[in-house]
Amino acid sequence: MVSEKKKESILAGFKAFLMRGNVVDLAVAVVIGAAFTNIVNSVVKGLISPVIGLIGTQSLDAYKSCIKDPCGIGTDGKATGVELLWGSVLNAALTFLITAAVVYFLMVLPMAKYLAKVEQRRKAKEGVQETMEITELVVLKEIRDELIAQRGAGGGNVHSDAPGPRL
To answer: Full-prediction pTM beyond 0.70?
Structure first.
């Protein structure tokens, strides 16, 4: 009996964890990010690498430097020497920069502008509300001052023939 309740509470807790908004949002972001990575890799491979290929080779992976001779493939099929594969690093850096630029200019910047407009509208509404409250307060103060002035001029009553409490 106790183990069944414990299983139910564990399953209920797991279900609550999965149904939290941020977990679902994170899962969607990971899936979108994976698809987006494929697009960026295609742009680098299909557009940027050929442009760089006009200067040198079409594949950035072909750029490397030998720091310990002899570099290459030995007769036994194993790599010899020590090579720095700086073309692969350059390719990864370009992919990162393109990804970051696209995310910033197509997602972050427009969202920041939208949120700024929403905040500006909210502040404008608050300003109108505050102005109305201040105006209302000013009018009430003027009424009070007028009543006090009338009381001082009329001998203590606002209207001597008017029934009601004295101010």
So the answer is: no
Span 112-161, pLDDT tens digits = 899 999 988 888 887 777 666 677 788 888 899 999 999 887 655 545 45
Cα 68 → chain centroid: 47
Note whether 83 and 67 are within 8 A (CB): yes
Non-local CB neighbours of 49 within 8 Å, separated by 6+ positions: 58, 59, 60, 91
The 3-state secondary structure of 77-140 reads CCEEEEEECHHHHHHHHHHHHHHHHHHHHHHHHHHHHHHHHHHHHHHHHHHHHHHHHHHHHHHH
Integer distance in angstroms from the first to the last C-alpha of the chain? 74
